[in-house]
Amino acid sequence: MTKEMILAFSQTKAEPIWLQERRLAAFAKLEDLPLPTIERVRFHRWNLGDGTIGDNDFSANVPDFTALGDNPKLIQLGTQTLLEQLPPELIQKGVVFTDLVSALEEIPDIVEENFGAALAYDEDKLAAYNYAYFNSASVLYVPDNVEIELPLEGIYLQDSDSPIPFNKHVLIIAGKNSKFSYIERFESIGNQTEKTSANISVEIIAGSGSQVSYSAIDRLGENVTAYISRRARHGHDSSVDWAMGVMNEGHVIGDFDSDLVGSGSHANLKVVAASSGHQIQGIDTRVTNYGHNSVGHILQHGVILERGTLTFNGIGHIVKGAKGADAQQESRVLMLSDKARSDANPILLIDENEVTAGHAASIGQVDPEDMYYLMSRGIDQQTAERLVIRGFLGAVITEIPSPEVRQELIKVLDSKLDKR
Questions:
Q1: Whole domain around residue 60: which residue ranges?
Q2: DSSP H/E element including 157
Q3: For helices 17-29 and 125-133, angle between their N-to-C axes, nearest 10 degrees
Q4: For 270-303, what is each residue's pLDDT tens digit?
Q5: Residue 213: inside a domain, yes or no?
Q6: How many domains does the chain have?
Q7: Sheet holding 96-99: strands in order across?
Q8: Does 388 fall in a domain?
Q9: pTM of the model
Q10: Distance between CA 217 and CA 155 in Å, rounded?
Q11: CA 52 vs CA 1, 135, 136, 196, 240: distances in Å
Q12: Within a domain: 395
């Protein structure tokens, strides 16, 4: 791929000059930038992008829309937008939820101001790759002082029968004192015939006083090797409650970061993950406290089946000047096989006095006494394991605000257990 080909793709999308220049600047730096640092995960030889850009052909793998609810939603399959559903009353309030091309027509100045505000294009090699090669994107914009009761839903489907990489950029902009819930799904559909890669970047720009409830369920297929980056930049007194279910089938790196720039800002990151087969998943969850009295909490629970590998890195960093900051983290892993591999690494970096910080981490197997108790009451081994796993992950799942997402996570987890 040459810069001329990237520029040609950008021009076919009628992207503005500033975005064309951003793509080319990222492309120019790719060779010199390092890969992101994910402790204790060897992913440097993974195929995380082959340097191609293009559109998917229209696919036969179109999902059934009849079962979907009436809440606001955007559905994309590969690089194609299949459905936009936004009530007129939200449109009148200035809410925008659409693909990037349309957003650049409706709110060009807002997109330009915020695109890249949470993730710099030259932060590392995989960030630069996303900026240079993303082939589809979406924008959710909720203006100042707007509150939305129904959850907004972004459904992003990867066509498993297409060799085109799944390179996506999602931009979420929460105006000052806005309040809303957002549910995000990345899922593979089709026959799993093509091996490919995914590079996904999600940016949340949380304006001062905004409240964002963010839930995500990742279900990319076994032939997709993925890097998923989620970043939030917090204004004063803003809050983002994250709830993420990492339930992919292929190798995955998850890089989830919150920058608590504003004083009094809050981030609660809850992660549930399951690894199975020969799958490797590395989850790097970081909160950086910049603002006075900012609060960042990390809660991660995971299970490993068969020969799977799961690594949790929990990183809390309180920078100099962040007086009154609070950084807490907990990472726990349950292994259901002697051949499973896991790491739970708590990291605290404290550069300021007058702060609060703490961590907890554990790795263990199913308690034989728990299994004996359940099986002695007539429960078979597979059902007993399922009950133990649900109890272990329940500490995180019950914290997820959306009952629909809680039930879906349980359903997805059960499906992974049934494949053993």
A1: 3-366
A2: strand 152-159
A3: 140
A4: 999 999 999 999 999 999 999 999 999 999 999 9
A5: yes
A6: 1
A7: 96-99, 136-142, 166-174, 196-206, 224-234, 252-260, 280-289, 309-318, 341-350
A8: no
A9: 0.95
A10: 10
A11: 6, 10, 13, 11, 34
A12: no
